[in-house]
Specification:
Elements lengths: L2 E6 L3 H11 L4 E8 L4 H8 L4 E3 L2 H9 L6 E2 H7 L2 E4 L6 H10 L3 E4 L11 E2 L1 H8 L4 E4 L2 H17 L1 E11 L15 E2 L8 H6 L7 E8 L5 E9 L5 H10 L3 E4 L8 H10 L10 E4 L4 E3 L2 E8 L6 H11 L6 H12 L5
Parallel strand pairs: 1-2, 1-5, 2-3, 3-4, 5-6, 6-8, 7-8, 9-11, 13-14
Antiparallel strand pairs: 9-12, 10-11, 12-16, 14-16, 15-16
Helix pairs in contact: 1-11, 6-11, 6-12, 11-12
This protein binds nicotinamide-adenine-dinucleotide.
Amino acid sequence: MTAKVAINGYGTIGKRVADAVAAQDDMEIAGVVKTRPSFEAKMALEKGYELYAASKKKLDDFRKSKIEVSGTLEELLEKADIVIDATPGDTGDEYKKLYEKHGVKAIWQGGEEHGLTGFSFNSEANYNNALGRQFARVVSCNTTGLVRVLYALDSEYGVKKARVTLMRRAADPGDIKTGPINALIPDPIKLPSHHGPDVNSILPGIDITTMAVKTSTTLMHLHALNIELKKTCSEEEIINLFGTRPRIRLVSSKDRIKSTAEAMELAKDLGRPRGDMWENVVWKDSIAINKGELYFFQAIHQESDVVPENVDAIRALLELEKDGMRSIKKTNTALGLATS
Ligand code: NAD
């Protein structure tokens, strides 16, 4: 029997997670929930997903637009084993009550606070602790990217201290409302930023401080990392370590990948759906040990790096697979993401 997954909030993250779930052989899409009869609602039907309206009030909007809906979110919850909640990050408390009422498990995204579920998830760092839980939160795109590298480094060499500057994309490519279009914004101006504490929601023992700048780009985030390790190691050893991780892709400026634009072009050339890059893109020629400290750059595709993590989180909460690395491998294989 395959697990039945509902997607509430079929936007940037929700539609990607839906396709990733549909690609697995141990889970299927029970239905997706839209608030408005948009082109995304039509596309969901074309893909063969059953469409549900967020509430009874919204049903009429769909019917007027002649878009076939199978019912409301509450009806979908009756037949789902688990919900991926990818609604904007301010509906958590309201929907949590609804999921509890219907006795359905749920996974939220990084726009919600850690406190909503009391458990924040990353596939490599804490899969075991997610087994059988009712609720979890997959951390944000930036936090996911940071946890992947910090967990690898901490497991192998011990992280004494991490200091990170995040250059954040201002908006997603399909977003016409957000900016800036011509400025750099220290965000937040009062330091440090929330990303460090968010990493600590998964890796509590790591001394990390972060600062962030909003930049006029839509493609990816760029992180500049400076890390003090407990054990000494060489640049070569760091490259080898990252090379063994399932969701880190090493690239080189020598191959003419010198920017986030070229990293995105690589994802398209790899034939990825929507041009997505699920892995952290780490420049191996940026990896440097200087005065005993590690430095490197990585790029994070904000629209997609959390997608495979959501698939693993479903498997953990429903206990479809008890072993985290086996789930990661299964997810990666189904998506066509090379596993070393
Ligand atoms: P989005 O705006 O692209 O999609 C949200 C979807 O939810 C839209 O289709 C919207 O119509 C729908 N929606 C709005 N209110 C709703 C309601 N009350 N009930 C049901 N559906 C509703 O947002 P997104 O970028 O996909 O973000 C979703 C979550 O993922 C947020 O928590 C966000 O912080 C997180 N996240 C976003 C990114 C990113 O870069 N886009 C990356 C990682 C995590």
